[in-house]
Design brief:
Layout (H helix, E strand, L loop, with lengths): L5 E9 L6 E9 L5 E10 L2 H7 L9 E2 L4 E8 L11 E4 L8 H4 L9 H6 L10 E3 L4 E2 L12 E5 L3 E3 L15 H12 L7 E5 L3 H13 L3 E6 L2 H10 L3 E4 L5 H9 L3 E6 L4 H9 L1 E9 L13 H7 L2 E4 L7 H13 L9 E5 L3 H9 L5 E5 L5
Helix pairs in contact: 4-5
């Protein structure tokens, strides 16, 4: 009879709604089947971590969050085929690989997306992490829970990346950066010579600016209310910026583009901003929606404007990215100097995780990265 072996870890635990992350000693079981145990070097912090911490998305507590992990493979399960101990990997979202969405190359729309990423356990309802008293902690957040020194993922959401790239930088490619870049390249399919506007110049919106430049857009507009973000947008390739506190964003977009933008992205999660984005579209324009407000949030638009203008509103999850292909492509673009997402990040030690969250929510830091290894 086999016994389960565990690895001692330090984890940032969320124990109550809107409560702080608390660093606790815990343990995580060894990988089974197609699972992979990863020593987390660093992990990005994303808006989704905060809205789950605050229970806008109802994931059970106590919980280990974190879903932009990057690290080095420590152990693999017996069914793992293409990942080896010592590989550098980025951890992304979970999916089933079996449903019609997965089979058609649209894994972010997996029919099991919510339970696999927000269920707080594996698909059988089991947890892999126990606290110091032996009590289970909810985990498997985005099939990883990477706010810890070690994370357990599946081979399917563990993406091998080049060892030429700095592993501590790469975690945000698993969600936030992938979302912005993928929305432009995979979902909207922004065309060379076209016009693109991002409403929101946070990490997702500025990743979209970088991707719009890669895609060949010649008019790239960033809309925000924070002057420093707009300055950075210009540095990253925006041809125009609009401070919507000082100017009418819709009128200004129409003026710059000669009637409206062909492509737009809304990343703030604010319904009024989404309305601005729809209104700023050109005839036959499309706006992608990636901003995540609380569940059951309503938005509105002018039906006849949408109808007569042939406009489209497209919901986008994870940039509609097939991660095994897209994340290595983004790494290669970074190594070539064509995708400078390193300009979006600021590093924090693990012990300062609550400061990282505050700085992110206050708009001080676009994309916090928590250094985990050797900082527990």
């Amino acid at each position: 009879m086999s016994t389960t072996e565990y690895t001692s870890i330090t984890a940032a635990v969320t124990r109550e709604k809107e409560g702080p992350f608390t660093l606790e000693e815990a343990k995580i079981r060894d990988p089974k089947a197609d699972e992979v145990l990863v020593k987390v070097v660093a992990t990005g912090m994303c808006h989704t971590d905060m809205i789950v911490r605050d229970q806008d998305y109802p994931v059970p507590l106590p919980l280990v969050l974190g879903h932009e992990g990057a690290g080095i493979v420590e152990k693999v399960g017996p069914l793992v085929k293409d990942i080896e101990v010592g590989d550098h990997v980025v951890l992304s979202y979970g999916y089933c690989s079996k449903c019609s969405s997965c089979h058609s190359g649209h894994e972010p729309y997996c029919q099991e997306f919510y339970p696999r990423n927000f269920g707080g356990s594996d698909m059988e309802g089991n947890n892999a992490i126990q606290d110091a008293d032996g009590n289970p902690l909810h985990d498997h957040f985005f099939s990883q829970s990477s706010f810890a020194t070690y994370a357990l993922s599946l081979e399917s959401n563990t993406i091998k990346v080049s060892k030429d790239a700095p592993i501590e930088l790469l975690g945000p490619l698993g969600c936030g950066i992938q979302t912005g870049a993928g929305a432009v390249i995979n979902s909207l399919k922004v065309k060379p010579g076209s016009s693109f506007v991002t409403f929101g110049a946070g990490a997702v919106g500025l990743s979209a600016v970088l991707a719009a430049q890669v895609a060949g857009a010649t008019t790239i507009i960033a809309v925000d209310v924070v002057p420093s973000r707009l300055e950075l947008a210009k540095e990253l390739g925006a041809t125009h910026v609009i401070n919507s506190k000082e100017e009418d964003a819709v009128e200004k977009v129409r003026e710059i583009t000669g009637g409206g933008a062909l492509f737009a992205l809304e990343s703030t999660g604010i319904p009024a901003v989404l309305r601005q984005g729809v209104d700023s579209l050109a005839t036959l324009g499309t706006i992608g929606v990636v901003g995540a407000p609380a569940l059951d949030t309503d938005a509105n638009f002018d039906v006849n404007d949408l109808l007569l203008g042939g406009k489209s509103i497209q919901g986008i999850v994870e940039g509609d990215s097939t991660t095994k292909i897209f994340i290595p492509q983004l790494v290669e673009l970074y190594l070539q100097g064509r995708f400078a997402f390193d300009k979006l990040v600021k590093y924090y030690d693990f012990k300062d995780i609550n400061q990282a969250a505050k700085d992110s929510e206050d708009g001080i830091t676009l994309k916090p990265i928590i250094r985990i290894a050797d900082n527990a």
